[in-house]
Amino acid sequence: MNRPTKPSNYDAFLADVVGLLENARRAAARSVNSVLTLTYFEIGQRIFEHEQRGEARAEYGELLLNRLSADLSKRFGRGFSRSNVFQMRQFYLAYQEKIQTVSGKSRGPAIIQTASGQFDVGPFALSWSHYARLLSVADASARQFYEEEALRGGWWATSSTTIRTWSST
Fold first, then answer.
1. Cα–Cα 20 to 30 A to 83, which of 8, 21, 77, 106?
2. Rounded CA separation 53/47 (Å)
3. How many CB atoms lie within 10 A of CB 58?
4. In total, how many domains does the chain have?
5. For residues 45 and 162, which has the higher predicted lDDT (pLDDT)?
């Protein structure tokens, strides 16, 4: 019995299919990161708006963050510690000018599928980890600079060089 031989162009065909899958996985990861980051922004907005209806802001805000953190952690598991929920609020306050709608409110994810099938990552091109790290930079113009550098240079939010650089501002 003769074994079937692979066609001479099979290696190129395989490389093409592998490339498609790798690109799709990267695009999916970027889309997921973008949707999560925008969702955390919207959670921060809702926390802020809910606090504004409260009486004693500082005490109420602490109670709200603690309770929301506990409830979300119970329902969704990891990722909703009190500090992470607090960062969502801070994220909204730091980046609220970045999202503008006709009503001035952000409702629903800003993810758009283009004709080419590529997804627009919306207003937040970095991951939540990047933005959470950027929140440690107090100066808005310095924060914008580091955001642009992270986009341009592909900095990882956990890079020790990046952390030292961001922390020194």
1. 106
2. 10
3. 9
4. 1
5. 45
Are 65 and 47 a contacting pair, CB within 8 Å? yes
Q: Give pLDDT, residue 72.
A: 96
Q: Are the beta carbons of 119 and 33 closer than 8 angstroms?
A: no
Range 18-25, long-range pairs (CB < 8 A, 24+ positions): none
- Could you tell me if 113 and 154 are in contact, meaning their C-beta atoms sit under 8 angstroms apart? no
Three-state DSSP at 124 gives coil
Q: What is the pTM of this model?
A: 0.71
56 falls within a domain: yes
78 token code pair: 């990891």
Report CA-CA distances (Å) from 100 to 40, 69, 106, 122.
16, 27, 7, 12
Residue 144 lies in a domain: no
d(CA 8, CA 122): 43
